[in-house]
UniProtKB/TrEMBL annotation:
Hydrolase that can remove 'Lys-48'-linked conjugated ubiquitin from proteins. It comes from Pygoscelis papua. The gene is Mindy4b_1. InterPro entries: MINDY-3/4_CD, MINY3/4. PANTHER family: INACTIVE UBIQUITIN CARBOXYL-TERMINAL HYDROLASE MINDY-4B, UBIQUITIN CARBOXYL-TERMINAL HYDROLASE MINDY-4-RELATED. It catalyses: Thiol-dependent hydrolysis of ester, thioester, amide, peptide and isopeptide bonds formed by the C-terminal Gly of ubiquitin (a 76-residue protein attached to proteins as an intracellular targeting signal). This is Ubiquitin carboxyl-terminal hydrolase MINDY. Belongs to the MINDY deubiquitinase family. FAM188 subfamily. One of its GO terms (molecular function) is cysteine-type deubiquitinase activity.
């Protein structure tokens, strides 16, 4: 039998399989599970344990950003425009959100 805390975690946590690699995407704010107002701007962390990732990636998610605030250096419809897989996974829950990597080089 599964412990009740495993069915209803105290903190937001997602086990991810992104491009064939497993990782953990988690937050430290328990209100993210129960208060929709905290979904405006919040922090998530991603760790996949791979050799190339030396520390947990600290991500800032903004769900109310606007498409015109994006970097204009490249046409978003161009075939060369790639988004990190972690960002695409986050956008399955928060469509249109912008993700700041806070100084960490985004990895695909």
């Amino acid at each position: 039998q599964v412990c009740p805390r495993l069915r209803t975690p105290r903190l937001p946590i997602w086990l991810c399989s992104i491009t064939g690699r497993h990782g953990v995407l988690f937050g430290t704010d328990s209100l993210l599970l129960s208060d929709w107002k905290t979904e405006r701007v919040f922090h998530l962390y991603f760790y996949n344990g791979q050799q190339e990732q030396t520390k947990t990636a600290h991500l800032t998610i903004d769900t109310h950003s606007h498409h015109w605030e994006e970097d204009r250096s490249e046409d978003p419809s161009s075939p060369g425009k790639r988004h990190p897989s972690v960002e695409m996974a986050i956008r399955t829950k928060w469509a249109g959100a912008t993700v700041s990597w806070n100084g960490t080089d985004p990895f695909f």
